[in-house]
Structures are given as C-alpha cells and as structure tokens.
Amino acid sequence: MDLHILDHRLRVTSISKSGLVHFTHPLIKLIFLRNRTRCKFFSLTETPENYTVVLDEEGFKELKPSEHLQVESSIWLGLNVVSNGNASSSSQAVGVTKIAKSVIAPLAQQHVSVFMLSTYQTDFILVREKDLSVVINTLEEEFNIYREVGGESFPVHCQDVSNGLQKNGKEAIQPTVHPVLIPQNQFCVMSLDPDTLPSIATTLIDVLFYSSSPKDDAPSSTGQDLDCIKFFSFSLIDGYISLVMDTEAQRQFPADLLFTSSSGELWRMVRIGGQPLGFDECGIVAQISQPLADSDISAYYISTFSFDHALISVRMTQLLYIFNGI
C-alpha cells in the first residue's frame, strides 16, 4: 500500500457558539463560493461545545483574529492511505478500522499525536509537521510513502533511521483512560455532488447556523448514555463533499440529492472524553480503534477541538458497551 502526504498545510481551529455570528460570512464563502477562495481543504464540525474548523492556509486567511476563535499553534499535514491508486477500501471493515494496525497503532507507539478526520470518501490522518520525520521513519517499512507537490507525487524516504525504541526521543507512556458517552442518535455518513450544493444551500445554512441542538445543554460527563447530541460535520476537500449528520437532520434535506452506501448504513456514536482532550496526548485513537480492528468492525472517527467521536454501525450496537471498560 501507499501512504500519501498531502499538499496541504492545515490549521485546526475552534469557533465559539456565541461568536459564530462573527464568522458566518467567511464560512459561507468557504462552503459555497469555491471560485472566490483558493482553499482546497475545509472541514466544519458542530458539537455542543463549539465549531471545529480544519482548513488549509488559504482558507485560514479568511478567519480574522477574534476572542471567539481559538487556533491550535501547530501546522498539521494530512496523510492518506492509498491502495492500487485509490483510497484504501475493504470488503469488510471501513473507516479508521482498516488503518488502525498499520498506521494508528505504530504512530501511537512512537508518541505521535494524530487528529483524525474520516469522510465518506476516505480517512485523513493529520500529524504535526514537526513530527513528519518520525512518521516517515515509523511507517516506511509498511508503506511506499509519497509526498504530493503541485499535483504530482514524489517518493519520500527517511535515511536517518534510529535503532532506539522511541525514534522521536520520547518515552512511551500509557494512554489515559477517558470516559465515553453513547448518545442515542443514529447518524448517516453521506456525500453530495458539488454541482448540486447550491440546491441545498438554504437547508445547509439553517442546519449549520440556526438549528438548535437536541439538548440545549452540553453533554454531562457523568452518565454513559445521552438522549441526543448535536453533531454535524461538513467537509469539502479537493472537490469532494462529505456530510455526517443524525437522521433528524437528514430528513431536512432532499432525499434525491444526498447519497450513501448501497446498504444505507446507520451509525451510533461513541464520544470520547469527559474533559477537553487537548492535542498533545497520544494513543487516544489507537485505544478506540484497536479493539474494533481486532473484531473487524467498521468505524469512522472524527476528532474535534475538544473531544473525539467514533461512529460504529448500529448493527454492532451491543458492542458499543465494550468501551465502558476502556
């Protein structure tokens, strides 16, 4: 398999709920007016706490400094696993599960923090730019690694291979055990032809900027189950659109414009973290994805500024509760 380092230098940001009004114009521009911006990587995820916006440097220029905008200080690079020239796929597990053992676990062992963004089309593994040499060092035995520059792919090799157990010079630590929450929503992972985006503009603006969450209060960190949680994710990356929403939000969109897999799979969420997770802890994604990979269970994984979210098939609902013991 091949591992591609994408030609995007990314920023991870958060917009407060109360400050959204200050960013409505640039967000609408980034979503709907592709000919007015040079942004090629844009993802917006709403959770009860805030809006997480991941975007390339061109898109980041659209967000003006504000007390309502938090910016993680690092530059992040996107990695993508490719098999036979196409985004890696499997007749069995899909999503983060298929890369848990080959990518996620080895990076966790090398103390590399990752930020995950699963979409309808593929899975993006974001790593800090400063960790790139460690990433290449760690994964080059498993993958042919290429770096994309200006639409072309060039082979990458790490010549300075350390024989130490920790190639980045950090000691491996046992990951923290985080509480999980399992809301009752059922979610859909869908896509949309970019040419039909204007047809759903009014609905999308309403869902993103005006719809109230199922529960007005943020999720409690004390219970294992919630009735519902507000979660909506829109990604426009290199011309491909991905949407993640619950079935209630889905009913607001024209059924003939959104498409999903032939099985029409629905997903339940596992939300990881009782308190904001931060960006420095390593092994959180591996901790969740490893048992799923061992059981060949499909899962999508979306990191946000405060918490992580795994989506697991409703057919595997009973297995969600294995996370109570993590």
UniProtKB/TrEMBL annotation:
Q: Which Gene3D superfamilies match?
A: VC0802-like (3.30.2130.10)
Q: Name one GO cellular component term.
A: cytosol
One molecular function GO term is: arginine binding
- SUPFAM superfamilies for this protein: ACT-like (SSF55021)
Q: What are the residue boundaries of the Cytosolic arginine sensor for mTORC1 subunit 1/2 ACT-like domain, all occurrences included?
A: 178-262
Q: Which GO terms describe its biological process?
A: negative regulation of TORC1 signaling
Report the locations given in the UniProt record. Cytoplasm, Cytosol
Matches recorded under InterPro entries: ACT-like_dom_sf (IPR045865), CASTOR1_ACT-like (IPR049479), CASTOR1_N (IPR040778), CASTOR_ACT_dom (IPR027795), CASTOR_fam (IPR026249), CASTOR_mTORC1 (IPR051719)
| All residue ranges annotated as the CASTOR1 N-terminal domain in the record | 9-69
Q: Which residues form the signal peptide?
A: none
Keywords (A to Z) from UniProt: Cytoplasm, Phosphoprotein, Ubl conjugation
Q: Does the keyword Nucleotidyltransferase apply?
A: no
Q: Where is the CASTOR ACT domain?
A: 90-141, 263-314
| UniProt similarity note | Belongs to the GATS family.
Note the subunit structure: Forms homodimers and heterodimers with CASTOR2. Interacts with the GATOR2 complex which is composed of MIOS, SEC13, SEH1L, WDR24 and WDR59; the interaction is negatively regulated by arginine. Interacts with TM4SF5; the interaction is positively regulated by leucine and is negatively regulated by arginine.
Its annotated function is as follows: Functions as an intracellular arginine sensor within the amino acid-sensing branch of the TORC1 signaling pathway. As a homodimer or a heterodimer with CASTOR2, binds and inhibits the GATOR subcomplex GATOR2 and thereby mTORC1. Binding of arginine to CASTOR1 allosterically disrupts the interaction of CASTOR1-containing dimers with GATOR2 which can in turn activate mTORC1 and the TORC1 signaling pathway.
Record-given protein name: Cytosolic arginine sensor for mTORC1 subunit 1
Query: Which species is this record about?
Result: Sphaeramia orbicularis
Which lineage is the organism of this entry classified under, starting from the top rank? Eukaryota, Metazoa, Chordata, Craniata, Vertebrata
